[in-house]
Design goal:
Two copies of one chain form a homodimer. Chain A has a domain of about 450 residues. Chain A is built from 30 helices and four strands. The first copy, chain A, has a four-stranded antiparallel sheet with strand order 2-3-1-4. Chain A is globular and about 90 Å long. Chains A and B meet through helix 13, helix 26 and helix 27 of A and helix 13, helix 26 and helix 27 of B. Chains A, B: Its main location: membrane.
Chain lengths: ~725, ~725
């Protein structure tokens, strides 16, 4: 690939991005799309739909960029929770380290690469891109020391920045613990595998056990019911209610905002008796029917946070497979149907899912390499001679080589996150946040293996090197620099395009249009709000980080494109966090250890590949000089694991004891206890589960208000 | 190797064993060796040395065998603790499963092997041993199904027996918890990494922290002092005292038992003020000197067991690297010098030791293969032509091939357990039992890798197959059956010999003789008592178990020899536990998970090798029929891990709460609290640390009493 071609591609992509971003800035001002682009705010306030035609609605404006830029971390934290802050910090960290790398490598390494070998020079735009990579450095050149120096510098800076980030995020996590004072989950222990007895109901067994062993701190408990029939009843009732509610609205309410607001209130009001009934059924109705539906799990409430923490730790009874206790997730975070799964089956589920996801990750390389095979049509024709007739037509051939591979790959790639999310569900996570986090790790493994290694090993190697090199080390050293161009275009196309896509929300937009023009249903709130898809976005950014690290010293031209991507990502994701996604639940920043570990992995991979490349360039001293760097990086990782990681797994006892004391001194404890017992409701009606708005607090809030004063909007705390 | 040769070897070994066992039965009756063969009892009672010459002292007798056979598990448990019971159960389990395997394989598989191929028959004694292995079965033979059936049968029986053992040992462990009522370690939490402050001593910081957060349950604490100068002073004083004590004894006491008993009393009396002084120094002397010696660790005593358990779990403070809490080991089990190691250095020590021991395990194969190379002298001569001259002399050649390899190997093998124990010490284990357990795992890995795989991969493969097979699977399938003969003789020589060696205690015997005839020192109690060397004996038995499993279906002739070994081991080790070794500390049965996991590993290895062998014999159906068995075995292991393993890591809260209640109802709590503060003494005098006898309780107990009524001897509970 020539440099000019790359720059052309960059130009095209930039133009597409600018167009789409402008389009977004127009679309977001259209009242009819407000639920697509302002989901988070709709969840808080039901905005008045203003249909008045104004000219400035159709002028692209950069106001959203300014707002996304100006918003402080505190506001992000208030809107999106600690997870959102961690996500933004991840982008900021990547931006920082890659800007350092870009400066060092483009001013030190790039010229050395360019002038590395005596060769016929073209005009710079006509040079092939290989001239700018380490491939162009002569064997045994003394200039390889510069690459080695750059490697050391980048590694040290990355470790330093990682340490600072880990430290500040740990501090934020500690603050997150102390700030969530009214969080009922700190008082609650989820008990699973309650032993079955013939004489007593599960509820009786729980009472007996906890009054016996935790007499001083046990408050009350709430049995978890098997979903299934009870759930189905409630869901059906909810649907009925919704159908009844929709028809009068269409008839009477029209599009007047005031009525609409009232309708919303009425709707949620009409749901309330239903909920109360379920509640009543749970608490009073200890008769025959519900007892049969009891599952072997319960939520046990304690008098203070520390007692709950203590009860959640360690082994409770003589049989490790009964009375399994964990700190309960937050009410909105509970994954009720998984809690009912018998505990004794969980281990076998986990193994099955582990095997299944490993199989998916490993065998996905088959379609990837098949699509890669399409690029090398001539080889394919040799292998399957019957294809020759079809492929000799020019249009067919162009389609096959130009479009099909990427289309097939993208379709496959979009299928994976939902599958992984399904796997994580079947694994038996007790909370939604945990499920998403587990899916995030699976998707990350998938991306790294299939996109990075898959392309390196199948694409270029099959083509050029398989006959010459059998050694894995040499293979990496040869294949990695030569695939730099591919990943550069990957950053340009997949990265930038995915950001535009994220901003435009095509799925939401299509749903909206479908509802409005096909179903002729003007109330589009049924589309619901989304939570931030950490399980696809975290792996994506980390994958680009992997590209950045690996290619920083080998082919530094990738870095400017990456920096542009990261700065766009910063703006886009902040905007999305503020406006689009709703934060119903969060993990409390536990995505950071994933980010940290992946970054360390990327760095070690960068170092190993650099070592292999130096070896291939016959500079054994520089090559062996990298070994201490690898060891130091691994030791640094181990130190961080010791120093910070425990905070992301356990809650320090000290903090909870201090919180308990404060509440007792303030006399707030009684109030918390009262709220506690009604905090967890297992059976919500289906419409509420789909993300229906919380009953509005400000009915007359206008769309303009939303845009101008984002900070003043009441923050939605999960109560 | 011919069958006759094997039988001859077995005969020779049997004769040697019989001679040594008889010699032992004579030697143990000699009063002068009483401290070699009755260490455990000497530790309890100081026996009267009876020098009267009697004829029956020199007649071999099987009385010890009878006694070892008759002793019940309860007595073993009382003398050797739960660990000894686990050790005996391990031998019993191995005996059971291999007797089943021996019956099945020798009556079903062995005839099939023998009549497998049409070949020229010799008289049975003249047949080569290969005729009895699976090598003799024809390719594609339908009789391989019998091997497959045997495999299934052995695996199922092994899983069933393993399950029963795990279950009964878990129950014993629970009983062990409840039985050790007066154990001070349940009330004690070891706190490390106490944060340093300029204003306060560590002692003050501990008081402030625990009175703040554990006000209701905190009792007192005891700072751990840096060993070094304090330790040195006490040791020196102890040595001085001992020298003073030895001279008068030799002059005045002679060999009269009463005086000796008194001497013992005097000696320990003369130590007492010293200890009291140290105690006093610790508790009262909070002045300048000792404060400087305070290390950042302390033992914190709590009012009840449950409070200590709670304080030992989870994260205490905001910084995971400070206030690290663990349940304390028992007083005799404390490894004081490791507790003083700064906690922040521990992780790096652990990594260094991990790397070092992996390197040792991996590179030890070099001397092993070198000694194996000696066996194949002709090859060696080709590689190093200068050796030819030396090696052509016949005596030299015989020495080199016959003796050197095994001598070198044995010397190397005896060096490894002490090195591993040293590694475990440097790793920073806080207790002696933990250190031994960790060394046990290291030695086990070492044995399995170097003895089993080392011999298979280096010995036979280099010789025969390296040119023909590169595939690991085929390599295993070819190499494993062909090394059966080697391991058969290994069981005969190394196994049986090691048992005789264990029984004779050559090291103790030599020390004893050296003291008496070279140093002319009649008081040989300074040789001290030993604790059971679990870290060498557990791996040894497990290694033989590995041989048994792997060769049971391939070459079943190994099984009878193994059964003889196991039954001898049963008698010998029970005798040693009862008479020789002292139980100062124990892990409470946590060796069983190691045994269980290794057995599962051996079984899976057996199945994989059998699968490979079936594949090689062109019986793909039988080969693929093994796959479900492997999966089922692994699932069984996972189930056991879920069901039982947590009990071997944590103490159930339920048990401790119940114990606390009982003690409170009985009013024993106060008494326990009083004992608690004096339970842990960091600085003992050196003579006591070397395993000097506990002050005698029965002075007039005679040696005969010891032999006849072993059950009546007061059990030495670590107080």
């Amino acid at each position: 690939m020539k440099l000019a071609a790359l720059l052309t591609s960059a130009g095209v992509n930039t133009a597409v991005c600018v167009v789409l971003f402008s389009l977004y800035s127009v679309l977001r001002k259209q009242p009819s799309f407000v639920n697509v682009y302002f989901g988070a705010k709709i969840a808080q306030v039901r905005a008045r739909q203003q249909d008045a035609f104004r000219f400035d609605r159709f002028v692209p404006s950069p106001s959203w960029i300014l707002k996304a830029w100006e918003t402080s971390d505190e506001e992000i934290s208030a809107t999106g929770g600690l997870d959102a802050v961690v996500f933004v910090r991840m982008i900021v960290f990547s931006f920082r380290i890659f800007s350092i790398a870009a400066i060092v490598c483009n001013f030190l390494v790039l010229p050395l690469n360019y002038f590395g070998k005596e060769m016929q020079r073209h005009q710079i735009p006509a040079e092939t891109l290989e001239v700018f990579t380490i491939v162009n450095v002569e064997e045994g050149s003394r200039w390889l020391w510069a690459h080695c120096f750059a490697l050391y510098l980048i590694s040290c800076c990355a470790c330093f920045l990682l340490y600072l980030e880990y430290k500040s995020i740990s501090r934020m996590r500690l603050a997150y613990f102390t700030s969530s004072v009214s969080n009922p989950s700190y008082f609650t222990v989820l008990v699973r595998a309650i032993p079955w007895s013939r004489q007593e109901s599960y509820s009786g067994t729980v009472t007996r056990f906890f009054t016996n062993f935790y007499a001083s701190s046990y408050l009350s408990h709430q049995i978890v019911y098997r979903s299934g029939s009870v759930q189905k009843l409630v869901t059906d009732a909810g649907k009925m209610c919704k159908m009844l509610k929709l028809t009068p609205r269409e008839l009477h309410c029209g599009s007047s905002s005031m009525r609409c607001g009232l309708c919303g209130t009425t709707a949620s009001f009409s749901m309330l008796p239903m909920e109360a009934e379920t509640d009543k059924g749970r608490s009073d109705f200890d008769g025959s029917d519900l007892r049969k539906k009891e599952s072997a799990a319960a939520l046990v409430f304690f008098r203070n946070r520390y007692a709950a923490l203590v009860a959640s730790q360690g082994l409770q009874s003589r049989n490790p497979m009964s009375w399994v206790t964990d700190l309960s997730p937050e009410p909105d975070d509970m994954y009720w149907s998984n809690i009912c799964v018998p505990y004794r089956l969980l281990w076998i589920r986990k193994i099955a899912i582990l095997v299944a996801s490993m199989a998916l990750v490993a065998f996905f390389i088959v379609p990837v390499s098949l699509t890669q095979g399409l690029v090398h049509l001539d080889k394919l024709q040799k292998t399957f001679p019957f294809l020759r007739g079809i492929l000799q037509r020019k249009a067919m051939s162009q389609l096959a080589t130009g479009y099909l591979p990427s289309v097939v790959l993208i379709i496959f790639m979009y299928m994976v996150p939902p599958i992984m999310l399904l796997f994580s569900t079947m694994e038996g996570s007790i909370s939604r946040s945990d499920r998403k986090r587990s899916a995030c790790i699976k998707v990350l493994c998938f991306f790294i293996w299939n996109v990075f290694f898959g392309n390196i090993l199948s694409g270029s190697v099959i083509e050029r090197f398989s006959k010459f090199f059998k050694d894995v080390k040499n293979l990496l050293a040869m294949a990695v620099p030569s695939t730099a161009t591919f990943f550069m275009t990957y950053v340009l196309t997949s990265g930038w395009a995915s950001l535009s896509c994220e901003l435009m929300q095509p799925f939401g937009l299509l749903c909206n249009l479908f509802y409005r023009f096909v179903l002729r249903n003007k109330d589009v709130s049924t589309y619901g709000t989304l939570t931030f898809p950490y399980h696809t976005e975290v792996p994506r950014i980390l994958l680009f980080g992997l590209f950045g690290f690996v290619y920083s010293t080998l082919s530094p031209l990738i870095l400017p494109f990456l920096l542009v991507y990261l700065s766009l990502a910063y703006l886009v994701y902040r905007n999305q966090i503020l406006n689009v996604y709703v934060t119903k639940y969060q993990t409390g920043g536990t995505y950071w250890p994933i980010v940290h570990n992946t970054t360390i992995f990327s760095m070690v991979l960068m170092q190993i590949i650099a070592m292999a490349v130096f070896g291939l360039k016959k500079s054994t001293v520089a090559s062996s000089f990298v070994i201490p760097l690898i060891i130091l990086t691994l030791l640094f990782n181990e130190y961080c694991r010791q120093r910070f990681q425990p905070l992301f797994k356990h809650i320090p006892a000290q903090i909870l004891i201090e919180m308990d004391r404060q509440d007792e001194q303030n006399g707030k404890m009684k109030e918390i206890h009262q709220k506690l017992t009604s905090a967890y409701t297992q059976f919500k009606s289906s419409s509420l589960m789909l993300g229906d708005p919380v009953p509005p607090s400000h009915n007359n809030c206008r769309l303009e208000d939303l845009e101008i004063n984002p900070g003043k909007i009441p923050v939605h705390h999960p109560s």
